[in-house]
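Please, structure for the following, as tokens.
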Amino acid sequence: MSDSLPYAAEAEAPLTPDELNVLRKQYIREGKEEATTQTKFNYAWGLIRSKSKHDHQMGVSLLTEIFRNSPERQRECLYYLALGYYKLGEYSKAREYNSKLLEHEPKNLQAESLKHLIEDGKEKPGS
């Protein structure tokens, strides 16, 4: 597993429809319930990067499942769950997951970057 997480700004760039479709097809081919953790994670990552709120919700759902069932992936899941909730406008949940990551890795620059985005988003009118 890589020690490097993408910065939140990088995760704003959505995959092309073809790229997301490759991940979706792999997930479906393996079977939603039988798909490997890596396949689920890849698909969830693609969904989080999407511009669609529905995709963000699906991504958060998959990541939550991985977080609960795969302790070795919890670190990555914390970051992407925080990012997913941020993109959904659920700033308190985003802050909760990001704070858990920062508790374990206080010098994590990506989580620090996301922390500032969450705080800025929270201050927007209507959020």
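DSSP finds seven helices and no strands in the chain. The longest helix spans residues 53-69.
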